[in-house]
Amino acid sequence: DIPMEKPHIAVVPSPGFTHLVPILEFSKRLLHLHPDFHVTCIIPSVGSPPPSSKSYLQTLPSTISSIFLPPVSLQALPDTTLLAVQIEDSVTLSLPYIRQELNSLCSTTRVVALVVDVFAHGALDFAKELNLLSYIYLPQSAMLLSLYSYSSKLDEILSSESRGPEESITLPGCVPILKRDLPLPFHSSIGYKQFLQRAKRVFVPDGIFVNSFLELESGAVRALQEQVKGKPLVCPVGPITQVGSIGHENGAECLAWLDKQEPKSVLYVSFGSGGTLPQDQLNELAFGLELSGQKFLWVVRAPNTLASAAYLRAAVEDPLQFLPHGFLERTKEQGLVLPSWAPQIQVLGHSSTGGFLSHCGWNSVLESLVHDVPVIAWPLFAEQSLNAALLVDGLSVALRPKINQNGLAEREEIAKVIRGLMEGKESIQIRKRMEHLKNAAANAIKEDGSSTKTLSEVAAILRGSLVYHDMKS
Ligand code: UDP
């Protein structure tokens, strides 16, 4: 039931909840500016899409249609522990189907532009063939885009000298980061090679949408805009966070529990849509929460030594069986433990939530800013260490626990950091800075805000291209 007569934007996400939802939330914003347009989302997936993605897709307005491509099986992907490689390769396997759907869409409707998730950059070639405007949607920070843009220079620097993991690197306009905090693909040869190749492709389209805003990352955005000199357009259009909620079985229980707590007294603990901890770290975190004496709401997943294990494939075991013996009984007054999933947007927006122990996935970062909740930064994989550096060192709105020589955050350290965030002297300043960022975030997406203006400029380009297309046909 795709309306044939309406001008169209084709959108290609990549597999995984957080490479699907953000690009669709972005589509909703664009449609708000262009109510007469229609978006068709062509969805590649690995296996069957997770329940969270399915529930989300049911909430879409009628101005967005979805086409599901035949799923790629996990077994068809290279045997690597790197999520980025798996996601990107799964899109590569889906390219013939993407092309087929795009061709058929273009022959029946007035498509003006193609917007693809960063891992679906392979589809950009089709935009050229079909004479469409092309955009990449990066559901991440401007700092990550800076890393893409600076990567070949950084590669030269890193291969001509030996820099230890504790030495720092400064990307143009960004807060310095330690070499060990470079995104996970930098620490594997296949991942690094693919990162460098992707970096070249990122700067091919007409524009790059980045889910950030000028006031949050002004240094990085300005440096990027200077460097690309107009093409591709670097367009900060955020913060784009999920609006509205998707129903979930844990939802009602957890919100009812929050209703009973004191204002800003609860620490919410979650590692994103698929982050996991190894068993020994899960134990330390459990004891650390208990020792801290603070109220907590913890989304627990079954442990795994691979941090991104549950991103493309949810674990089936009951995660609560992996908690230390007696933990649930001892903490039944102190905390609530939820298996695998929580309605995060509502939790962060709840007046009882006062802190967020987060893996610093970019969506979680933006959601914490929008809802004014200070953070304990616990990065696990992907570019999460960059995000943690931005929050801790750049913006001073987060604390980060120290890791021992075995790579573990120990219970005493965890408890200390939790108390520091929830009630320490530093927390007053952190809360003030967070409130300031919350206001800046709200301003950026107001009617005359920086991100709204940027998006309106792109909307005008799309409208202009439509006139051109219609004249030709
Ligand atoms: N999320 C949620 N409930 C959960 C875990 C995650 O609603 O229990 C949502 C969260 O609100 C965010 C997204 O899933 O929008 C996670 O995105 P993020 O970029 O933080 O991490 P990723 O899943 O990509 O590692």
From TrEMBL:
- Keywords, comma-separated and alphabetical: Glycosyltransferase, Transferase
> Which Pfam families does this UniProt record tie to the protein?
UDPGT
Does the UniProt entry include the keyword Glycosyltransferase?
Answer: yes
Tell me its EC number(s), please.
2.4.1.-
Q: Does the keyword Glycosyltransferase apply?
A: yes
List the transmembrane segments: none
Q: Which GO terms describe its molecular function?
A: UDP-glycosyltransferase activity
Family per similarity comment = Belongs to the UDP-glycosyltransferase family.
Under what name is this protein listed? Glycosyltransferase
